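Task 17 of the worksheet. Students: predict the tertiary structure of the chain below and write it out as structure tokens. Keep your answer in the requested format; marks are given for formatting as well as content.
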Amino acid sequence: MKVCGDCGAKNKNTVFYCIQCKEKLGEPISEEEKEAIEKQTERMLGKLSKKPTDQIVEKLYKIYKCR
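Model answer:
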């Protein structure tokens, strides 16, 4: 799915112009590119979701260990 950079409308991947404002969109992406983007996004979200939790647990451990 393509999101128009001008108006924010969601467009099908196969269109070249926005369905709302007629702004030119980029070339359609291939299925391989789509899968690669999805995998990269999943990896990034996984890293982001783990990092804050680890930091919070470490801080709580230090707090409760000291008491």
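Marker's comment: The chain has a mean pLDDT of 81. The first strand starts at residue 2 and ends at 3.
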